[in-house]
């Protein structure tokens, strides 16, 4: 089968994209609106970009033709926290993806605990074992008129890591972390079936 996206309905192409780029890590992004309302939402179009300075990218699409609250808040405040989603937080993460108006605090809706961050105003999610405080570097708009995504490029300025997850070698114990990844539709993957491939010298 060969599919040319230029001949395809964009909704079908979206299905090709989310079914091909798997598994995707999930950035559970906390932000704060100009009126102080807290916001949390998951984004799996998410990646690390570079380590020096540590930089992350998150792509936010449109909701009914308008920017999502996360992008609006990030553009207005210049700050965000990326919280890592682990197995026991899957349901709460999913709850925060609901279509809530801007004045609704998803921390409250999902029963999450906001804890003050140290370098940025948006709070972090206490229940998440890794929180990355970030400041906005740039928003790059990608896509055709009417369906533009805002790619948030942000610098990580402070990491919070649950003590038991950091190894003596300063690595994160991913076997202990139990992060989940997004597949397509409502499917997710666990990160328990680990195996090693040694890099060539
Ligand atoms: C696991 C998961 C991953 C998601 N990834 C994205 C994404 O990468 N980009 C996006 O625009 N929406 C994504 N969504 C949908 C948003 O979370 C959803 O539109 C949410 O309501 C946005 O909230 P906000 O308006 O408060 O920013 C995802 C939803 C789920 C459940």
TrEMBL record:
- Enumerate the UniProt keywords alphabetically: Flavoprotein, FMN
- Flavin reductase like domain mapped to chain residues: 19-175
Recorded superkingdom: Bacteria
InterPro entries with a match to the protein in the record: Flavin_Rdtase-like_dom, Split_barrel_FMN-bd
GO MF, one annotated term = oxidoreductase activity, acting on the CH-NH group of donors, NAD or NADP as acceptor
> Which SUPFAM superfamilies does its entry note?
FMN-binding split barrel (SSF50475)
Protein's UniProt keywords contain Flavoprotein: yes
Q: Name the cofactor(s) required for activity, per the record.
A: FMN
The record's family statement is: Belongs to the flavoredoxin family.
Name recorded for this polypeptide: Flavin reductase like domain-containing protein
Traced from the root, the source organism's taxonomic lineage reads: Bacteria, Bacillati, Cyanobacteriota, Cyanophyceae, Nostocales
């Amino acid at each position: 089968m060969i599919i040319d996206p230029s001949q395809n309905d964009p909704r079908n192409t979206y299905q090709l994209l989310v079914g091909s780029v798997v598994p995707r890590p999930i950035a559970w992004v906390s932000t704060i609106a100009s009126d102080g309302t807290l916001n949390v939402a998951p984004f799996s179009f998410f990646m690390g970009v570079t380590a020096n300075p540590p930089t992350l990218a998150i792509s936010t699409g449109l909701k009914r033709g308008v920017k999502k609250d996360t992008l609006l808040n990030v553009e207005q405040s210049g700050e965000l926290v990326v919280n890592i989603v682990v197995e026991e937080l899957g349901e709460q993460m999913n709850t925060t993806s609901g279509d809530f108006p801007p004045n609704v605090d998803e921390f409250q809706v999902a029963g999450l605990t906001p804890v003050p961050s140290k370098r940025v105003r948006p709070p972090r999610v206490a229940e998440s074992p890794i929180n990355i405080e970030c400041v906005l570097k740039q928003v790059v708009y990608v896509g055709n008129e009417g369906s533009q995504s805002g790619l948030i490029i942000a610098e990580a300025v402070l990491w919070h890591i649950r003590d038991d997850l950091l190894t003596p070698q300063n690595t994160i114990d991913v076997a202990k972390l139990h992060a989940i990844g997004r597949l397509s539709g409502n499917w997710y993957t666990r990160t328990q079936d680990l195996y090693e491939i040694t890099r060539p010298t």
